[in-house]
Amino acid sequence: METLTIINYTLLVLATTWTFFMLVNTQADCRKNCDVDAAKKGFATYLFGLTLIFILYFALSWAMLG
After folding, report:
1. C-alpha triplet 49, 50, 55: angle, nearest 5°
2. Which residues contact residue 18 at a Cβ distance below 8 angstroms, ignoring those fewer than 6 apart?
3. pTM for the whole thing?
4. What is the domain partition of the chain in residue ranges?
5. What is the pLDDT of residue 33?
6. SS3 34
7. Is the CB of residue 15 less than 8 Å from the CB of residue 49?
8. CA–CA separation, 12 and 31 (whole Å)
9. CA distance linking residue 28 with residue 32, whole number of Å
10. Per-residue pLDDT tens over the stretch 7-66
């Protein structure tokens, strides 16, 4: 496996893990005091994480192809 491929997958795993923990943290806050703003924050965190993962994946795979 090439070094760039390893870096690509490592960044994807880190972004996925970060998104998961941010979402869990936001949901825990929502259980304590859930209102519309907390729900919006959770949804925005989820969308931001997915966007980050897809951008990293496609950008790094494009960079690996040359």
Report:
1. 100
2. 49
3. 0.58
4. 3-65
5. 74
6. coil
7. yes
8. 29
9. 7
10. 878 888 888 888 788 778 777 777 777 777 777 877 887 888 788 878 877 887 777 676
Query: How big, in percent rounded to 5, are the helix, strand and coil portions of the chain?
Result: 90, 0, 10
**Which helix (H) or strand (E) segment is 66 a member of?**
none
Query: 26 with 41: CB under 8 angstroms?
Result: yes
Confidence category of residue 1, pLDDT binned at 50, 70, 90: low
The rounded distance, in Å, linking the Cα atoms of 24 and 18 is 10
Q: What angle do CA 15, 16, 21 make, to 5 degrees?
A: 100
